[in-house]
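Students often ask what a holo structure prediction actually looks like on paper. The answer is less mysterious than it sounds. You provide the chain, you provide the ligand, and the output is a string of discrete structure tokens encoding the 3D arrangement of the protein together with heme C.
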Amino acid sequence: MRRSVWRSPASLGLLAGVLAIVIAHACELDGAASAARGDAAKGERLFATLPCVSCHDVTKPWPGGDICPNLGNIATEAARIIRLREYRGKARTAADYIRESILDPNAYIVPGASYRTPDGKSVMPKDFGATLTGAQIDDLVAYLLTRR
Ligand code: HEC
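The corresponding structure tokens follow.
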């Protein structure tokens, strides 16, 4: 009787190993691609001309800000927040967390007395998804990822 090579435990193990590498690699590429989509230099100029700068200080690290959280180390903060048990948003990477914070500020509200309205919503404007283009959001995310 001829035994199929695919039924031997060794080749199954090999197959699983190859699959794991392919999947891990695809995820890595995906993360790199979404972070690389934007132009950080354009994002920096944009941040300075939009209302962002009147609320957020990008030169100092979190927490700071009485009115709004400082964003001087937002890339590090984002990576920390997505691992918190109380984080209920959808982001799995720092880039996606920053994107989510801009498009849907209520997805996760940073703890801080002045960061919420009396009815528990984020104080940050909620219309950036409508007033900015996808490319502008990408640029802002790329820029904020440089703030470590
Ligand atoms: C009216 C003030 C205000 C403006 C304008 C504003 N934000 Fe915010 N932002 C906040 C507040 C308050 C929070 C904290 C509450 C929350 O998490 O939603 C916040 C949170 C954030 C966070 C998450 C911070 C963290 O530590 O997790 C990011 C990123 C962010 N803002 C980026 C931006 C960008 C980019 C712009 C401009 C397109 C902007 N914000 C405009 C008030 C503002």
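The domain at 39-144 is CATH 1.10.760.10 (Cytochrome Bc1 Complex; Chain D, domain 2).
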